[in-house]
What does this fold into?
Amino acid sequence: GAGADNDLYINQAIVFIEDAIQYRSINHRVDSKSLWLYRWYYSRTCQWILSLTITVILALAFIEEPSSLTVTSDVRYRLPAWNPPCGLTESIELLCFLVFVVDVSVKSYLIGWKEFWKNKWLMAFILTLIVSLTDWIVSLSFFCKESVRIRRILRPFFLLQNSSMMKKTLKSINSTLPEMASVVLLLAVHLSLFTMFAMLLFARTKDNQQDKEWVVYFRNLPESLTSLLVLLTTANNPDVMIPAYSKNRAYSIFFILFTVLGNLFLMNLLTAIIYNQFRGYLLKSVQSSLFRRRLGIRAAFEVLSSLKETPASAQQSCVSIGALLQVLQKAEMDSRCKQAIMRSLKMCSCDQLSAAQFQKLFEELDKDAIKQHPPSPEYQSHFMQKMQFAFGHPYFGYLGNVVALANIISICVVLVMDADKQPSERDDFFLGAINCFFILYYLLEMLLKILAMGLKRYLSYPSNRFDGLLTVILLILEIATFAVYGFPHPGWRPEFMGLLSLWDMVRLVNMLIVFRFLRIIPNMKFMALVVTTLLDLVKNLRAFAGILVVVFYAFAITGIMLFKGAVVPLGNTRILKQSSQGAEFTGSCTSFSIKKVVVLYFKEKNVIAWYSAHFQAEVIYCLLHVLSVHLIYRWAKIYFVAWWLISSVIWVNLFIALLLENFIHKWDRRCQRESLSDIEYQRTVELMFRDVLEEPTEEELMEKLHQHPHLQLCR
Amino acid sequence: GAGADNDLYINQAIVFIEDAIQYRSINHRVDSKSLWLYRWYYSRTCQWILSLTITVILALAFIEEPSSLTVTSDVRYRLPAWNPPCGLTESIELLCFLVFVVDVSVKSYLIGWKEFWKNKWLMAFILTLIVSLTDWIVSLSFFCKESVRIRRILRPFFLLQNSSMMKKTLKSINSTLPEMASVVLLLAVHLSLFTMFAMLLFARTKDNQQDKEWVVYFRNLPESLTSLLVLLTTANNPDVMIPAYSKNRAYSIFFILFTVLGNLFLMNLLTAIIYNQFRGYLLKSVQSSLFRRRLGIRAAFEVLSSLKETPASAQQSCVSIGALLQVLQKAEMDSRCKQAIMRSLKMCSCDQLSAAQFQKLFEELDKDAIKQHPPSPEYQSHFMQKMQFAFGHPYFGYLGNVVALANIISICVVLVMDADKQPSERDDFFLGAINCFFILYYLLEMLLKILAMGLKRYLSYPSNRFDGLLTVILLILEIATFAVYGFPHPGWRPEFMGLLSLWDMVRLVNMLIVFRFLRIIPNMKFMALVVTTLLDLVKNLRAFAGILVVVFYAFAITGIMLFKGAVVPLGNTRILKQSSQGAEFTGSCTSFSIKKVVVLYFKEKNVIAWYSAHFQAEVIYCLLHVLSVHLIYRWAKIYFVAWWLISSVIWVNLFIALLLENFIHKWDRRCQRESLSDIEYQRTVELMFRDVLEEPTEEELMEKLHQHPHLQLCR
It folds into this structure.
């Protein structure tokens, strides 16, 4: 009946408006049941459960065998890690898989059969689930003793498919690949030509004394390629040319040419290409988000305008205010926006809204949330008013910064004085006393500020929250210290009184003071700019970081599988080392004992350790060298070269491109900002680009709406 | 009289037009004698002598004591370098100084007294000359035994002041300094906060086994600062965290935070800032060049229009064609441009030129030199025409590339097969035979191409010149080899027949073939783009390279003076090493024996060696470490940190900024270019920006002309 139809239209409008708010696509089923399912699927609880499931399945690697989640990383000292019994992690995994099965079925149902076949991500999701479940069954049938677990490498896919931002970013990266591939090809040509050249230049001669270069670096084709590839990472930079250079200085020309061409030109060209491709990336992504929002609102307008209560006589389609109010009350949205829209609806005199008016109402969504700080309390007493003026003045804040600086300097002085003293000679009286004094000052400052501004206003500034929290923590730690060690007096040495963990806390107090110093940053103009750029960047970088996590995880798991059993405790490696050819080890590798490499690379699944690795091409080189000599693992070289290319070359360049993009936008806008600097914006990427964005035209919106696979518009 | 006046005007016009062609400033004296002096000073001979003098005085460092220009760089084997007798280098120096004195006096005279006081570069030049001459006198009075020679550090200034491009670039860099300083300050704050944090975190404990981290890296404030500064260069990346990491994995969070913030964010922010500042740099510099050109031409017009023969009745000032022809004949300019201007002058019907017409005539100067290849010979015989078609066809060129590739592959195969053979087992027959075959093919290819295209057309393509030259060299080397060793036969081993240097030449032949392979580059679109970008970049980078040479030279000379006497032959250093504290050397420094560091850094004045150093922060770190332990030179740390900042951080970022600028311009223009790709342009920076440049207005030009310090215009 008409009532049921009307209910359906209202529900559709609610969902479309929620889609608009969340920048979601509106191409989903729109019948009553599907709408209910859709709202349930995108409810906070459901999405939270999904995120939790993804986190759990990714975190499983930390407790699964072979896990290395122990306190020490030293293979000699560490205790065997806890091995969960067979079936424990597997049953958690099964639970996760079940959640994913529900996820994929709901998603597939909601977008409809036709769209499903076009959606490669969903197909890949189903495929991944099938492979994972098969692998899981195989695993259980071997009682967890099987050596290869494919499903582990596939896990990061679950993270990837759940984020539309990451999928979009991946698409952008994908479109950059042809150009990147060209430069990588150029690098390969460069490398191979120079390798041939090197092999001809540093050939074996009759005189064995003379061909050191040949013996160590250019013995055969793979050796030469590796030497030059590592030179490209600058890890073996002077080493590789030293034997030739000692023979004749002119040989250095070869290495310098190689480095200048490869490192300075080709590598930086990669940066240029990636930056060039990503120049419009942020803008484009924000533009498409805007389109989705406008489309959702327009769709809501269209369905509301087909409500039966609307007078059919009107030429133009329009929406009654009553229907809109009904929709607004049921839609989930920011309460500030909702109130603002309600307010302007009430101020509107007519009771019908045209499409333009409707769209205009929802522009409130795009607006900055201007944060208004609560007012200061108004004191009656003259004395209190004076106090309020004094301690609410910016100069009081500056005084606080000066005191924080003085505190830092005094800690520094104590550190320098105590540097070479034995722990037994050290007197902690001075450090204890200044800590006590400064913490008292910080406490006083906090209380006076609260007095002047009122608690609510004080807490409305993030810098004050940061300050206050640290002050409270400092106070608690200090009181705890005094309770255990008594007040500081000459010869006060807390660490010799047993409870070492609390003395560690005293050190922690000082570290917190170092952090407290950071509050001066907003007071310095350029620093504030830099810091806000960095914070913005972090926001925009989430998708990239997600992709990085995916890559790291896959590499880590592959590494664990490839290098399983390669860990030899230190004693054994030493023997291994001595028995191997001496010449290879006299190079730069001796300093990197195999142990260290092993500690860092083999059997480590701690993602953090992998991350630090990425800055250190040297270790990779050394490992390559060790591995190529020992020929333990044939694939190690390819593995590490791929790792270097992806993590060090491509990702770092992507990062630089994004940073350039962000910084240049920010910088251009700096002047406009300055005038508004006293109003705090909750900045989003959308706002940064607002004056450059193009509004979609009505024709574009309507064309898109008519292409909707499930919504049949009357007109 | 009027005749003399007319002559003066003609001469002025000639000089102004020459100024316009060379993009020189026209603010110089304009009386007859000064004009003669000016033309003499800017004549090719004079400028060539000046350049030669600068080269000579800079090159002096290579033969002066302490010189290290020996074949080997190994201090153990190298013979004492030739020490020129006292007075030899000094007299060459004096000659150079005299040339510079003449240079500075002519320059000062030509710009006039008033302008001289405003010109800081000239004042600095004079000051440098006075200091150098004083130092020279002191040097001679000590019979060359004095230890400090200030004038050596000042030498690169002579290079700097002679290039207007370098002065302009320096000004740009100078204007970027405030922003760079802010980031460097931020880096310093970052570094010092983390240093304090580290000292509190890795404090000395009672248990000596546990505080390895403290002993090795954070013993005191300078030590901690150095450790973290070196971490910023990523040179000691995993080393510095390994002791703490073995104790507890959580310590790695500290190092990762430090690296991510410092290396990934702050360092790349420096790139962003420098790129942002340099975004308009190329455009601005080209724009100001254009202004100088238009100003020079306008000035020529103004002086010519005041010639007495011009009818005074004319309202507008104008120039007679006869006078212009007279000027053109005497002015030194590109013959192609001169002919083109003459031609359009003759085509002009009127005999008076207005300012706009005059300016338009000289636009020929801005135009691309479209290179027209001479026509192919026209053969009568039908057979020859067919031959011409076949061998002039691009497919014949592709065949040549395929053959070159086959040659490369065959050399590669021989190299791989011979890699592990003893020189005595090796059979060079195969390599000799393929060399012989391929060189014959190359010769045939060259001859057939010449037949098809005619010698002139063949030589007009740079790729053919490259090809032909290599083919001729290959042929000569091959003939020489056969003359000495006979034709290749199984068991052919040229190296065992005495004349080793010729066998080296056979290897050289193969290297040349590797180079010949490069001719395929223009056939691949993307590669061609990349290569032309790089070539353009090299052109635009000359000024930067000049400044780099200046900095390198100054650093090298300072290094020589600072570290004089620090070279201890290997035996001694070993003793030094053993007697020093062992703990410091167990780190990553052992692999870099002091010898190597010494070889690379101390007493080296070979600029090339310095250059390679810049890629290797590790060596710097090691040296810092060695020096800080031994406390031999207090200033070494500051010296190397400055070196790292300037050469590695700032210069590399400048380079990236320029590359980005160039590449993005080029990329945007790629589509327009493609249509014209068959016409070869002689590309200049000016042409790249032509469609973006703004023409200066008449008012701007006239205002500038009226500000001319020496030229009094009649109207």
Notes: Confidence is low (pLDDT under 50) at residues 567-622, 627-633, 674-683 of chain B. Residues 172-285 of chain B form a domain with the Helix Hairpins fold (CATH 1.10.287.70). The beta strands of chain B are 319-320, 352-353.
